[in-house]
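User: Hey, my collaborator sent me this sequence without any context and asked if I could get a structure. I don't really work with proteins. Can you help?
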Amino acid sequence: MESSASNAAQSRWFVLRVASNLEKKMRDKLERRLKAVGLEEQVPSVLVPTETISEMKGGRKRVVQRKLYPGYIMVEMFLDEEGQIPENVWFLIRETQGIGDFVGSSRAPVPMADHEVERILNGMRDTEETPQLKINFKLGDR
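Assistant: No problem. I've predicted the 3D structure and written it out in structure-token form, which is a compact way to encode the shape of the chain:
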């Protein structure tokens, strides 16, 4: 009995398919729709997993954001008492134009493993604080 009560307040992360190069636009659209119907409490985070890279191009140093998983966004949401995605949240996400399907099976999307979420979130934090250096050298370059 106690485990189902703790599931009610438990949040889990899921992955959604979106059109490539429209990840940020779809994130913003989903956040606006959630806010418009008052569901932003049930879906506290919508992320485009990125890493910050410092690269040298044309002799200049640039800091850029690079998507880790083009065509995907991560969504954190609170589950209902049965450990399922609440129906109102499910339908809002599924009916948002431009957002494909959840990664996993049709009505039972597979939540991300905690260690995967932790790795991605920590990786994003680490590269924000200290961008990775990316230098494009080809064989024969000086």
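In plain terms: The chain has four helices and seven strands. You can pass these tokens on to your collaborator as they are.
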